[in-house]
Amino acid sequence: MELLRLDNVTKKFGGLVAVNKVSFTVEKGEAIGIVGPNGSGKTTLYNLINGVYAPDEGRIYFDGKDITNLPTHARAPLGMARTFQIPRPFGGATTRENVAVGAMFGYAKASVDEALEIADEYLRMVGIYDKRDVEAAKLTPLEKRLMEVARALAMKPKLLLLDEVMAGMNPSDIDKLIELLKRVKEEEDISIVSMVEHLMHAITKFAERVIVMHQGEKLLEGPTMEVLNHPKVIEIYLGKKVVEDAEG
Amino acid sequence: MSFFDKYASLIPVLLIYVVLFAIGILVPGMWQPVAFIMFYITLGQAFNIFLGLTGYVDFGYVAFLALGAYGMAIAVESLGGANLGFGIILIGLVLAIVMASILSLAVGAVALRLRGAYFAIATIGVNEGFRYFVEGARIWGGSEGIIISGAMRNIFGRETANFISTFVSDILVFIIAILAAIVTVLIMNRKMGYALMAVREDEDAAKVMGINVTKYKVMAFIASASFAGLIGASAWTLKMTYVFPSDVFLITYTVEAIVIVMLGGAGTLMGPVVGGLIYGILKYYLSITLPGFQLIILAPLLVVIVIAFPEGVVGALKRKARGNARKYLR
Ligand SMILES: Nc1ncnc2c1ncn2[C@@H]1O[C@H](COP(=O)(O)OP(=O)(O)O)[C@@H](O)[C@H]1O
Ligand SMILES: [Mg+2]
Which residues are CB-neighbours of B294 under 8 A, at least 6 positions away? Predict the structure, then answer.
């Protein structure tokens, strides 16, 4: 069953075409990787799906509904959640309150008391429960990313959009996070889209399918290993064999 | 959170109100200064619901006090012959809320779609615009305003009218302060409180999290404006027994409200109480000891304090507070 569909979506910033006639779909319960060098339009793609920007052309469908003109705030309650490439905690609030906000206003639509409990549950799951009463601004960069994952999961989304969430993590943290994502994906039937600039290794362990972005366009799409070993992909990554590129 | 934890922060606030009230009643000659200080505390508490909880600055805030003042004056003036007794004050208060909230809904629905700085600029015109409208269109007595002292004497008799002006009006301000504190805590404990926290911290991220930011901002704006209307009706119209546009549409009060909230700690329950105490006490005693110089002394002093404590006194304390103390300081 199709959960998300982008139909010929274009976004321009002045003369720059950040996303150029991109189409793809995400099925329910699927794990997809979006890879592409810096500036290839990945984050913009998320901003279009979230409604941070409106596309100049094309349409976006979520769960059978045309959401192209839906206001940003009306989208998360339909079952979308994301993390930000540069984490955006509500800095003055505690870690727990941050995650609870996700549970209250996302698809979970929990009451305040339920949300605080859900927050504890996901903080335990990502391993920063001991930081629950710390002001989110005081978390380390790694903890901020994990907080964002918890906040997104607490929304109980149908679609989870991860933006470079593993950047800067060490291999053991990455493995832990991938285990976690695989588990919630099975248990809660979430579709996960994860985008990375490098870290192809992580993607191979996790994504069933990969989309390659290059200069705003969808260059390739297909089964993970097949796509990542494609000559074109190797070419845009300056001749490196990307699957061995494990650095972050 | 337990019920007690959620409402514990009301205890110190209400305690301060009780102490102030006791001083005013028991110590001869202190009712006047206590009422003076209480006006500023209440103003801060009301404004905090908007400025503190959303992080948006409304430079037209005093217009809501002014409309509340007119609401009370219009009620007394036009229903004075209806033999309603104290019912007329109730009607005046309701009219004050209705008028202030209608204006806030109109301003908020348009201007609260704008971002912080643009909103602030947009609201500068609201107060002046309303004043020139009242004066120019000669509604509500135009620039002569409305004088209700005669009507009050007719309704209540000389003695009771005097009692209302010198005592009941101040008691009403106390009650408004208590209600504003309770409403603030209720908001903080509900989804609305979390939504406004998110707006304050990162409005774009808040939207992505599914928060209808305009809705919650407008709700806070209306709540805050309604309390402003009540303050205008009680502390101005009932106390002074007149409303002049040149007295009530004064941006000075907006600036004072901003200073009180910032000084005490925006977005904290205790902040406006501390800010109002500091500001009210300083202003009262400076106006006695150095009449005419109070602004020259007060302004730089407050600027220094606000720079020294950017989160306000209570904000800074809250940061230091650990464990149990935290729930009393919100
Ligand atoms: N708000 C914006 N205004 C102008 N240009 C932007 C904006 N957001 C992104 N861009 C540009 O769009 C292109 C794609 O950026 P982005 O989607 O962030 O790429 P990626 O996430 O793949 O690194 C870049 O050239 C970037 O500079
Ligand atoms: Mg990016």
Answer: B282, B283, B286, B287
User: Locate tokens 């509604």: which residue?
Assistant: B139
- Ligand 1 centroid to residue A49 C-alpha, Å: 15
Which residues lie across from A17 on neighbouring strands? A12
Q: What is the pLDDT of residues A98-152, one digit of tens each?
A: 999 999 999 999 999 999 999 999 999 999 999 999 999 999 999 999 999 999 9
Judged by its nearest atom, the ligand closest to the C-alpha of residue A19 is 1
Q: Is A40 in the pocket of ligand 1 (CB under 6 A)?
A: yes
- Ligand 1, atom 3, lies closest to the CA of A13
Ligand nearest to the CA of A47: 1
Identify the pLDDT of residue B106.
95
- Chain B contact present for A70, CB below 8 A: no
Tell me if A102 sits within 8 A of A148, measured CB to CB. no
**A46 CB near ligand 1 (under 6 Å):** no
Q: Convert the pLDDT of each residue in B117-134 to its tens digit.
A: 899 888 988 999 999 999
Using DSSP bridges, classify how beta strands A16-27 and A2-13 pair: parallel, antiparallel or unpaired. Answer: antiparallel
Name all contacts of A216-223 with Cβ < 8 Å and 24+ positions apart: A216/A17, A216/A18, A216/A19, A216/A20, A216/A22, A216/A40, A216/A41, A216/A44, A217/A20, A217/A21, A217/A22, A217/A41, A218/A22, A218/A23, A218/A24, A219/A36, A221/A24
Which residues on chain A are in Cβ contact (under 8 Å) with B208?
A: 50, 52, 72, 75-76, 82
ipTM value: 0.93
Fold entry, domain B3-329: ABC transporter involved in vitamin B12 uptake, BtuC (1.10.3470)
B208–A contact, CB cutoff 8 A? yes
- pLDDT greater than 70 at residue A245: no
In chain A, where the domains are located: 1-23+48-70, 71-189
- pLDDT digits 0-9 by tens, B135-153: 999 999 999 999 999 999 9
Q: What are the distances in angstroms from CA B193 to CA A138, B106, B237, B261?
A: 22, 23, 32, 18
Say whether residue B194 is in contact with chain A using an 8 A CB cutoff.
yes
Higher pLDDT, B189 or A248: B189
Domain segments of chain B as ranges:
3-329
What is the pLDDT at residue A195?
87
Report chain B residues whose CB lies below 8 A from the CB of A51: 207
Chain B residues whose CB is inside 8 A of the A72 CB are 207-208
User: Is A71-189 CATH 3.40.50.300?
Assistant: yes
